[in-house]
TrEMBL record:
Record InterPro entries: Znf_C2H2_type
Domain C2H2-type: 23-44
Protein name stated in the entry: C2H2-type domain-containing protein
């Protein structure tokens, strides 16, 4: 199943507007003027996006991204 969360509308002069039409985490369909940020803050936690819980620091968070680089 393919879930489309973003709708792109093209206007004159190539201007494009991207609109979140459904929640990528739970599939909630947004009403046209519904504030997306409110749903995301009220209904979801960072874990829904694969992040560590709020206020928790992941072990190894300060490790270098690239190791073993020779100069
Ligand atoms: Zn949601």
């Amino acid at each position: 199943m393919v879930c489309v969360s973003i709708q792109t509308t093209r206007y004159s002069r190539g201007r494009r507007v991207h609109t979140l039409v459904s929640c990528p985490f739970c599939g909630h369909d947004f009403q046209p003027n519904e504030p997306r940020w409110k749903h995301l803050l009220d209904e979801h936690d960072p874990e829904d996006a694969g992040l560590t819980p709020a206020g928790e620091i992941a072990p190894g968070h300060d490790a270098p991204l690239f190791g073993g680089v020779q100069r």
